[in-house]
Design brief:
globular; 2 strands; two-stranded antiparallel sheet; mainly alpha
C-alpha cells in the first residue's frame, strides 16, 4: 500500500499571501493604525494647546469632546448588531438586485441613526446652515447665470461679497445643488441634510455595482457588510461631501458597467454617457475630485478596454462646456481658491502635523478592518500583476512554438478590488502631499474613504464578525464621545 502525504493547501484569495497565522498580520496592522490615531490625538492636543497652529479643537478631528447619548443611539446599536450578526450571511445569499437595495437602505439607516445621536437640529437640520456653509449663499442666486459669471471674483477673502468658506472652496456645482433643492421647494437645513444622507448612503451600493460589473461579485458580497458599517458614515450624516462622494461613486460605477458591456449594447452607451455626465458634475462640485481619474483608470485597466472613453468624454465635455458658456471658468477659479485657502486656516495649519495626521483620519473613517484589508490588498499586488500581465512579458521575451497560442491566465475575483483600492490609496496620498487638505479630511476625503472598507473582503471568513464589530465600535464611540462639526 502506498502512503500519500496530505496535499498542501494553497492560500485562498481571501486569506492573502500567508495562512500560517492568518490573523496575526491583520491584527498587527490594525494595531498600527490604532496607534497612529492615538499618537495623532495626543500629539495634536499637545501642539494645539501649546501653539494653536492646528486650528482644530480635538485633533486630528474637527470636533469637541462631549460624551452624550441621543435619540439615534438605540437604532444605531440595533443596526450595528444586526449587520454584525447577520450581515455576511445575508450578503452571501440575497439575489443581487435585492442585495444592492438592501445595502443602500441599511447604510442609510446606519447613517441616519448616527446623525440623530446628536438630535434632529444639531445632527441634521443645522449642519449646513452655519456661517461657513452652503445654505447661507442660496438667497444670493436669484439670477443663476449672472452669479456664475461673477462667481470667481467672490472667491478671494476680504473682497466685497466674498463667499462663505465652503462655497469659495468648491466650484459652483456644489452651491447650485442646494439652490436647485430650494427652487423645488426643498429649502432649509432639514431638506439639505436629508438629501446628503440619502445620496451619500448610496456609495455602498455603487461600490458593489462597480465590483460586480468588473467580475468580482463574490468580493462585492464579502465587502457589503463592511461598506454598510463604514465609520465614515458619521460624516456622511451630515456634510455635503457625502453627496459629492455619491456623485463620484456612481460615475465610477457606471464607468465599470459601460466597460463590462459589449459595444453594441445600448446599456453600454447609456452607462458611458451617464458616467461622463457624472464625472463632469464631480469636478464641478469639488476641485480635488479630479483625482478620481486614478480609480477611473484602474477600472479601465481591470476591464482591459477603452471603449467607454469617447462616451465618457462626450458627457464630461457637455458639463464642462455648459459651465464655461455660462461664465464660470474652472481653470481661472482654481488659482483663486488656492489664494483663499492660504488666506484662511489653510495658511496657518501646520503641514508637518497634518501630512500624517490626515492619515489618522483615514484610519478612523475607513475603520480597522479596512486597514487590515489594505495590508492584504498591497500584498496581493505582485500576484495580480503576474496574473494579469506576466504572460505578456514572457511572450515578448520568448516566442511561442509554431502553431501554439499562449493565453493569459484567468483573473481572480480579487483583481478589480486590488486595483481599485490601490488607485484610491494613491489618490489619497497625492491629496495628502499636496497640502491642500490640512485638517477636516474626515469629511473632505469621503469620496475616497468610503471605498476603502471594500478591502476587508480579503480578510479570512473566520473572525469577520469581530472585524465588523470593530467597524461599528469606531463609529459609535466617535459619535457618542465627540460632538463632530459634521
Amino acid at each position: 500500500m502506498t502512503l500519500h502525504s496530505p496535499p498542501r493547501h494553497s492560500p485562498s484569495p481571501e486569506a492573502g499571501p500567508s495562512t500560517a497565522s492568518p490573523h496575526r498580520g491583520d491584527l498587527i496592522t490594525a494595531a498600527g493604525g490604532a496607534l497612529l490615531f492615538a499618537v495623532a490625538a495626543v500629539a495634536g492636543t499637545v501642539i494645539e494647546n501649546t501653539t494653536g497652529s492646528l486650528r482644530a479643537p480635538w485633533p486630528p478631528l474637527l470636533a469637541r469632546w462631549l460624551p452624550h447619548l441621543g435619540p439615534g443611539t438605540p437604532t444605531a446599536l440595533l443596526v450595528a448588531a444586526l449587520v454584525v450578526l447577520y450581515g455576511p450571511a445575508v450578503a452571501a445569499r440575497l439575489p443581487w438586485r435585492r442585495l444592492t437595495w438592501t445595502v443602500w437602505l441599511t447604510a442609510m439607516a446606519w447613517t441616519w441613526s448616527l446623525a440623530l445621536v446628536d438630535g434632529w437640529r444639531t445632527g441634521v437640520a443645522d449642519r449646513l446652515t452655519t456661517r461657513y456653509e452652503y445654505l447661507r449663499g442660496v438667497p444670493r442666486f436669484t439670477d443663476v447665470p449672472a452669479m456664475l459669471r461673477e462667481f470667481s471674483q467672490h472667491i478671494p477673502g476680504g473682497v466685497p461679497g466674498s463667499w462663505q468658506p465652503h462655497i469659495a472652496g468648491h466650484p459652483p456645482g456644489a452651491i447650485l445643488t442646494f439652490v436647485g433643492l430650494d427652487r423645488l421647494g426643498l429649502g432649509g437645513g432639514g431638506w439639505a441634510g436629508s438629501f446628503c444622507i440619502v445620496t451619500g448612503s448610496s456609495v455602498a451600493a455603487a461600490v458593489l455595482v462597480a465590483l460586480r460589473a468588473l467580475g468580482a461579485e463574490h468580493g462585492a458580497r464579502r465587502a457589503a457588510p463592511f461598506l454598510v458599517l463604514a465609520p465614515a458614515a458619521v460624516w456622511v450624516g451630515t456634510s455635503a461631501d457625502g453627496y459629492f462622494a455619491a456623485v463620484a461613486a456612481w460615475a465610477l460605477a457606471l464607468l465599470a458597467v459601460a466597460a463590462g458591456r459589449t459595444v453594441r449594447d445600448a446599456g453600454a452607451w447609456a452607462a458611458g454617457l451617464g458616467s461622463g455626465l457624472l464625472f463632469g458634475l464631480t469636478v464641478y462640485v469639488s476641485y480635488g475630485l479630479t483625482l478620481m481619474a486614478l480609480p477611473a483608470l484602474a477600472i479601465l485597466v481591470c476591464a482591459r478596454t477603452a471603449r467607454p472613453v469617447p462616451l465618457v468624454a462626450l458627457g464630461f465635455g457637455a458639463v464642462a462646456v455648459t459651465f464655461t458658456l455660462l461664465g464660470f471658468r474652472w481653470w481661472e477659479a482654481y488659482p483663486l481658491l488656492v489664494e483663499r485657502y492660504y488666506q484662511g486656516s489653510g495658511g496657518l495649519r501646520s503641514y508637518g502635523y497634518w501630512v500624517w495626521g490626515n492619515l489618522a483620519c483615514v484610519v478612523l473613517g475607513s475603520g480597522l478592518a479596512a486597514v487590515a484589508g489594505a495590508r492584504r490588498v498591497l500584498a496581493a499586488v505582485p500576484d495580480v500583476i503576474r496574473q494579469r500581465w506576466g504572460w505578456r512579458w514572457r511572450s515578448w521575451s520568448r516566442l511561442p512554438a509554431a502553431g501554439v497560442r499562449r493565453e493569459p491566465p484567468p483573473d481572480t475575483d480579487r483583481t478589480p478590488l486590488v486595483l481599485i483600492v490601490c488607485a484610491v490609496l494613491a489618490a489619497l496620498l497625492v491629496a495628502d502631499v499636496s497640502g491642500m487638505s490640512k485638517a477636516e479630511t474626515e469629511r473632505i476625503w469621503l469620496p475616497f474613504t468610503l471605498w476603502l472598507p471594500a478591502a476587508a473582503a480579503l480578510l479570512p471568513s473566520a473572525g469577520r464578525r469581530g472585524w465588523l464589530a470593530a467597524q461599528a465600535a469606531a463609529a459609535l464611540l466617535t459619535n457618542h464621545l465627540l460632538l463632530t462639526y459634521w
